[in-house]
Amino acid sequence: MNSALIDLRPFRASAAFSRLWVGSTLGGLGGQLTLVTIMLHVFELTGSTFAVSMVVVAGLIPMILAGLYGGMLADAFDRRVVGLTAAVFSFASTLFLALLTWSHLETIWWLYVLSVINAAASSVSLATRSAIIPRLLPRELLASASALNGITIGVMVMVGPALAGVLVATTGYGWTYTIDVILMLAMFMGLWTLPSLRPEGTVVRPGLESLVDGWRFLKRAGNIRMQYILDIIAMTFGQPVALYPALGTVLLGGGAVTTGALTAAVAAGTFLSSLFSGRVVRYRWHGRGIQRAIQVYGASILAFGVVLLIGVWMPPASETAVNLGLVIAACIALAASGAADNISSIYRSTMMQSSVPDSIRGRLQGVFVIVVTGGPRLGALYAGTLATFTALWFPPLLGGFIVIVLVALLVRLTPRFRDYDAENPAP
Q1: DSSP state of 243
Q2: Cα(374)–Cα(123) distance, rounded to whole angstroms?
Q3: What's the confidence (pLDDT) of residue 294?
Q4: Which of 153-157, 186-190, 297-301, 321-325 ranks highest by mean pLDDT?
Q5: Which of 14, 223, 294, 351 has the fewest CB atoms within 10 Å around its CB?
Q6: CB contact burial 267-277 (16+ within 10 A = b; e otherwise)
Q7: 289: burial class by Cβ within 10 Å (0-12, 13-18, 19+)?
C-alpha cells in the first residue's frame, strides 16, 4: 500500500473500534463546542484574558489527579466500565451547565467548577479509551488508528469551535451547551457496545503500590519519558489558545467568529495531515519523526506571533471591522501548527501503545493524557500571563523560538530516542 491517503484498515479489522471511534468523535465534538463557549462566556463576564486562561488552568491539578487515578483504575478493573463511569460525570457536568445557563443562574465560579469536573472526567475517559485500542487492533494498525484519531480531533476541534462562535453570536450560550448535551449521548454508544476488557497480566489494585509500580516502569522507559518532556515543552510555550478571544476583540476584529476560526484552523491542519497520513504511518523512525514535527510546530507558532506583531501596525479600520488578510495569515500559521502537532501525536501515541505492556498501559496512558491535556493548560497560563504584562504578539513569538531550540538540544543529547525504531518497539 503506497497511497498517501489515510489507512482505513482499522475500521475493517474491528467493528468495536469503529463504534468507539464514532462515539468518541461525536462526544468530542460537543466537548470542544462547550470548551470554546465557556471561554467566550468567561470573557464576556470579565473582559479579562487572564480570567479566560484560568478556565483551563483551574482544572490542571484535578485533571492530573484524575488521570493518575483513572490510569490505575484502567489497570485494575474492566476498562469498559471505567470508561462508562467517566462518561457519566462528563455528561452530568455539561447538563448542569446548560440548566444553569437557561435559568440565568450561571456565575464565573460555576463556570470554573463545572469545567474542572468536566476536565477531570475527560482525563479518566481519555486514558481508558487509549488503553482499550491496543486490545481491539493488531500492533501493525496502531499508527493507522492514531491517524484516524487525528481525524476525530480535526473534526471536533474544527467544527466545534466554529459552531460555538456562530451559535454564541446568534443564539446565545444556552443553546450551545444544550447541543453538547445531545452530542455526548453518542459517547455512551461507543463504550456500551464494547466487550468486557479486563487488563491482562498481573493486576495491582489502585493505590500507592500501583502508583509506585507505574513510576518504576517509567524510570526505566527512557523513550516514553522523552516524548512526554518534548510534548510538554511544545504545549507550554507554543499554545496561544487563551489569546484567541482577545485577538478577535481588540487586534484582528471579528469577535467570537474570529475566535472560532482561529481554533478551527488548528483542527483543519490536524484533519488534513491525518487525511494524507498514508506515508506518515509507514515511517518507522518515530523518534526523529517526533523531533521534526515538534520543531515545525514551533516554527508555525513563531510565524503566528509575527502575524500578530504585524497586526499592531495594521489594526482594523473600525471597531466592527475585520482585518481579513491578517486573520487568513494567522489561520494558515495555526493550520500548519495543527498538522505538525498531529504528526507528532501519531508517532507518540503509537510508541505508547506498542511498547508498553497491557498490565501497565492504563497508568502510562493516564500520564500521557495528563501531558497532552495538561501541557495546553500550562500554555494557557504562560500565554495569558505573559500577554497581560507585555503584548498579545509576544508569547507566541518567544514561545515558538524556545520550542525549536529546546527540542533540538534535548534530542541531540538522547540518541536512543532519536534512533527509536517502530519495528522494534522499546519503552
Answers
A1: G
A2: 10
A3: 96
A4: 297-301
A5: 14
A6: bbbbbbbbeeb
A7: buried
Q: Which CATH number is correct for 14-192+219-418, 3.40.50.300, 2.40.110.10, 1.20.1250.20, 1.20.140.160? A: 1.20.1250.20
Helices 185-192 and 15-46 sit at what angle, rounded to 10 degrees?
150
C-alpha cell at position 271: 484533519
Average confidence (pLDDT) over 82-92? 89
Q: Going along 5-151, which residue ranges are E strands?
A: none
Cell of 421: 525504531
DSSP conformation letters of 83-105: HHHHHHHHHHHHHHHHHHHHTT-
* C-alpha pair distances (Å), 282 with each of 285, 292, 347: 9, 16, 10
Cell digits for 268? Answer: 483543519
407 Cβ contact list (under 8 Å, min separation 6): 230, 233, 234, 291, 294, 295, 298
DSSP state of 409: H
pLDDT digits (tens, 9 = 90+) for 6-49: 889 999 999 899 999 988 888 888 877 887 888 888 888 887 77
pLDDT confidence of 330, banded at 50, 70, 90?
A: very high
What would the mean pLDDT of 112-125 be, rounded to a whole number? 84
Q: What is the pLDDT of residue 375?
A: 78
pLDDT tens digits, residue range 158-172? 777 777 878 888 888
Residue with cell 491496543: 134
DSSP class of 139: G
Distances (CA, A) of 355 to 165, 273, 289: 40, 24, 17
Q: What is the mean pLDDT of residues 381-389?
A: 86
Cell of 337: 501548527
Q: Dig out the grid coordinates for 278 from the structure.
A: 498514508
Q: How far is Cα 271 from Cα 281, in angstroms, rounded to an integer?
A: 15
Alpha-carbon gap, residue 63 to 278, rounded angstroms: 34
Count of CB atoms within 10 A of residue 223's CB? 22
Indicate whether 299 pLDDT > 80. Answer: yes
Residue 233 clears pLDDT 90, i.e. is over it = yes
Sequence spans of domains, the chain: 14-192+219-418
